[in-house]
Every structure is written in C-alpha cells, then in structure tokens.
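Narrative of accomplishments. A recurring question from our advisory board has been how the design workflow behaves on a single, concrete structure rather than in aggregate. To address it, we present the structure tokens for one chain from the evaluation set, followed by the sequence designed for it. No filtering or post-editing was applied between the two.
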C-alpha cells in the first residue's frame, strides 16, 4: 500500500500534476477534513484514523446514488480506501459554499425531485448498512414499509435504549406503538424513494450560486415523509413545504405521521447524547398510544 494513498490518487485518478496547498476544514466531530488544492481543481478529503473503509464506502454509495438523480447538488464521491497507518479515507468533489443556506423553496423543490427520481425495485432499504450519526443504521431490504420502519428504525433504537440504559419503560411502550401503528398509514401509497436520511441544518448548505447542497447522508430507500424526521433541527419553513408538495403532493394523514418520523431521530439522540432527549421521545410515544388506543 502507498504511504500516502490520498496524494497518490489525486496525482493519478484526480488528473492533477501538482498539489499546491492543503488546508484543514471543519468536518464534524467524527472525521478529520482536509481541502487539497491542485492544478486540476480542489478535492475534499475526510479521514478517520480508527474506522475501516466500510463507513466511507456506505457514504460514497449514498452520495453516488443522490448524485445520479441529477436533482440536487451533492459532492461527487471519487475514491474510498484504507490508510497505511490504520483507518480510512474518502476523496470527493470540493464544493465552495456560499454565505447562506440558500432558498428554502428551491431546496424543497429539488429535494422532492430527488425523491421522485431515486426509485428502487428492491423495496425499502439500501445495498449496505450505514450510520446515523455514529449509530449503526440497518438497511436490510423489505417490501413492507411499516415492517421496515418498525423493525429497522424504531425497533433498533428501542433495543439500543434497553441495552444501553436498561430503559424497559421506553422499550415496552415503544414496542406497543410499533405493533399498533398500522392505522397511521391507511389510504397512503408508499413508494420507496431515495432519502438523504439525516437532513438537519448542519448537512444543508448552498454553493456560490445559491443552489442548495446536501451532504453527509445516511441514505436508504424509504417513505418520502421520513425525510422530514429531523425537521426539529433543520429549520424547514412554510416555503420549503409548499415547494416540496407542489412536486410531490401531500398524502392523507401526513400531519398524524410527522412525529412518528421524528421519533426515530429523537431516540437516536437519546442513545447518542443521553437523557436530555428521553422526555421528547417518551411524550411522542405516549401521545401515539393514546391516539391509537394501544
């Protein structure tokens, strides 16, 4: 293995003849991020010294799937591999961000266009498991959305809370909700569509032209409404939803299902960051159990 596989790829696969500058970029708390400036343009590189290539391979597959829809701007992934000292790297297109998050209405329209363009014939899931934050996200294919969401989204997080905190209350009540949530989906046609999967404000930006850019995905094929599960920390306004629903009309019962999709992310925050998120998770579960007489 090359002593510096990132540099080697940039000077071969990246078609650069020289690297003129490298600079550190804010890349979140999990990975180290670096910008490589070259005579063939700039590249964005994330490295992780402790995790093998599987996490970045999953990210590259998600970015690639979104990129292929040609609906919304995402960084194009180029190369994933292991580092000689342990860990892994991903090289992708460098996008110069603008000064704002861009237009909410353009983001809503382009996101809906991505959902319409990104379809799956395998059902709900993804070709690989990935991560939501640093939590494993299980993407085993299923033809039944309610089963998929109940088992691989809510069920997985509930079991994590039980194992991690011994929280049998949230586990048992949550399982009651999973078993009784079917009526929330009556008269709804659910098609698997490509989701970013972790759409909060930190993963939304805009380029120099003001066009929206989304990054750091946790992609899978699911119900389009699940994309709004992080809306409590994404800042989506009325113009976002109006533009989205012009492209993909709102389905019956949308408002009733909103909190169900937020619950997955509240539970994940509970498992990642502790008890500050327990009461929000619990109140959503209790509200649904009352609504469904479960």
């Amino acid at each position: 293995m090359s002593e510096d596989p990132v540099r080697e790829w940039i000077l071969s696969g990246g078609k650069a003849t020289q690297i003129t500058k490298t600079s550190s970029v804010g890349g979140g708390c999990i990975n180290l991020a670096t910008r490589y400036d070259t005579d063939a343009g700039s590249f964005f590189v994330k490295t992780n010294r402790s995790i093998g290539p599987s996490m970045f391979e999953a990210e590259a597959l998600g970015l690639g799937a979104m990129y292929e829809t040609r609906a919304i701007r995402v960084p194009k992934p180029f190369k994933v591999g292991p580092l000689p000292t342990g860990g892994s790297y991903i090289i992708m297109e460098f996008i110069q961000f603008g000064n704002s998050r861009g237009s909410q209405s353009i983001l809503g329209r382009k996101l809906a266009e991505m959902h319409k363009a990104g379809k799956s014939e395998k059902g709900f899931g993804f070709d690989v498991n990935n991560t939501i934050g640093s939590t494993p996200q299980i993407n085993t294919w299923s033809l039944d959305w309610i089963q998929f969401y109940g088992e691989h989204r809510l069920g997985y997080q509930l079991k994590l809370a039980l194992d991690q905190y011994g929280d049998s209350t949230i586990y048992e009540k949550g399982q009651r909700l999973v078993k009784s949530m079917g009526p929330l989906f009556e008269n709804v046609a659910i098609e698997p569509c490509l989701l970013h999967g972790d759409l909060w404000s930190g993963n939304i930006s805009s380029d120099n032209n003001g066009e929206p850019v989304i990054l750091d995905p946790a992609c899978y094929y699911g119900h389009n409404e699940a994309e709004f599960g992080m809306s409590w920390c994404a800042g989506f306004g009325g113009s976002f939803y109006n533009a989205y629903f012009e492209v993909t009309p709102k389905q019956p019962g949308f408002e009733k299902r909103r909190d169900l999709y937020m619950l997955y992310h509240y539970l994940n925050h509970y498992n990642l960051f502790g008890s500050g998120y327990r009461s929000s998770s619990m109140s959503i579960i209790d509200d649904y159990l009352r609504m469904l007489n479960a």
